[in-house]
Design brief:
alpha+beta, four-stranded antiparallel beta sheet, 2 helices
Length: 114
Amino acid sequence: MQFSHLFLAAAAILSSCHAAPSAEAGIGARAVVKLNQYRTFDDCTHDRSILYHAAPVSGKCYDLDDATGAYFLNTGGYLNCNGYEGKGCYSEKKHFKAYSGNCYNKDVASVECS
């Protein structure tokens, strides 16, 4: 019995260590694939007053709302994640690195990952 309790305690400690982001990983390490829209960059960096949330699906275009002033994008494992100048994913403007997550001032009109 004592060995099983020790094993469970060790497993709990190891799983929580693995899930916690390192100090240098920042906000991006907290989620897998995520696209959140905020009214301001400050709201984005403090994760408050979210306007819209999406968990991007491969190949689907997500238009940013006109009220959006900043957005958080975590690309997760998507290798091809792009921001577009026009809504409807028209005219590629920006490429996001895989496994990155950051707040951005609204500099694109739509986002698509695959």
